[in-house]
């Protein structure tokens, strides 16, 4: 009888597994935000890891869910995947953009605290799903990738790892980017990206301003190195040029920082000839403006396996 009472108490104190769908939460500044949530169809006893996927400029939660393919891993890896919408800017375009730290966006002018918003998001999901709070990860594309870096800089206690794709640490926050604890990082960047320059500098310097906001970013290598140093990785990075699987004008270089704390990996996947795209998908800006994607990497698969099966990650 005592066992049954204990079981009932445990069940009552744990959140029921929510169904996938659209949800709304309130940020600390009182704004409402929407997000899409995908979870395994059948609840299990084990808490679920969570991957939060952040869209880029002109993106949305819906677009990320429909196009990136994280859904195909939800059941096999028993992982929850959330796609939040960013702050909706005023004006005719009503663009959704994260306050990624560049200081040039409407979200910055409005004082939007997206780090606090993402904390509130994880708390809201934790009220609906039995989450493993030790395995919360953030991935993002472009503006979302920059936001993922900002989360790593300012809220390392919230996440076990980040995966910025075609992003970098915004220059204004780079000097103060000192993660409070070691976290895993998988960075994916095109070395010929005309939007977010691989070497750092002005975003969209050679692209008409109508397509994206400016602002300055650190280089891809400098961004990754900041997290390797912050994690206490003492070994020099080990680079390997991987043989191509398709002949599309791109090549993949894998860079792993060595002698990191146990369980922490810091990896860069640099795409020679690659532009501003989530591989292998083409950029929504088109190849003429954004450069080519790469068929030599499935970024979604790489992210899932890097986070959830670290001994069996690809490439």
UniProtKB/TrEMBL annotation:
GO terms for cellular component: extracellular region. InterPro entries: AB_hydrolase_fold (IPR029058), Esterase_phb (IPR010126), Plant_Biomass_Hydrol_Est (IPR050955). Residues 1-18 form the signal peptide. The keyword Metal-binding does not apply. The keyword Hydrolase applies. It holds the Pfam family Esterase_PHB. It comes from the Bacteria. Keywords: Hydrolase, Signal. GO terms for molecular function: hydrolase activity. This is Polyhydroxybutyrate depolymerase.
């Amino acid at each position: 009888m005592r066992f049954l009472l204990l079981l009932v108490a445990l069940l009552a104190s744990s959140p029921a597994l929510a169904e996938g769908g659209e949800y709304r939460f309130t940020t600390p500044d009182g704004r409402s935000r929407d997000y899409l949530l995908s979870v395994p169809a059948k609840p299990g006893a084990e808490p679920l890891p969570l991957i939060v996927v952040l869209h880029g400029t002109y993106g949305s939660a819906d677009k990320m869910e429909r196009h990136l393919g994280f859904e195909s891993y939800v059941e096999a890896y028993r992982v929850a995947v959330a796609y939040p919408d960013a702050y909706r800017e005023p004006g005719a375009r009503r663009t959704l953009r994260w306050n990624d730290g560049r200081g040039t966006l409407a979200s910055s002018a409005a004082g939007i605290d997206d780090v606090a918003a993402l904390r509130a998001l994880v708390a809201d999901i934790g009220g609906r799903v039995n989450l493993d709070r030790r395995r919360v990860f953030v991935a993002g594309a472009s503006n979302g990738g920059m936001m993922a870096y900002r989360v790593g800089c300012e809220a390392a206690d919230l996440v076990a790892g980040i995966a910025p794709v075609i992003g970098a640490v915004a220059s204004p926050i780079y000097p103060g980017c000192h993660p409070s604890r070691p976290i895993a990082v998988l960075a994916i960047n095109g070395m010929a990206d005309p939007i977010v320059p691989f070497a750092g500098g002005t975003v969209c310097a050679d692209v008409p301003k109508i397509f994206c906001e400016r602002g300055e970013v650190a280089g891809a290598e400098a961004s990754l190195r900041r997290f390797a140093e912050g994690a206490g990785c003492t070994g020099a990075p080990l680079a390997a040029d991987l043989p191509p699987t398709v002949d599309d004008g791109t090549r993949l270089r894998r860079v792993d920082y060595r002698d990191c704390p146990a369980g922490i990996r810091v990896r860069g996947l640099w795409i020679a000839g690659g532009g501003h795209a989530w591989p292998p998908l083409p950029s929504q800006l088109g190849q003429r403006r954004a450069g080519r994607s790469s068929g030599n990497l499935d970024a979604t698969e790489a992210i899932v396996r890097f986070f959830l099966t670290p001994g069996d990650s690809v490439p």
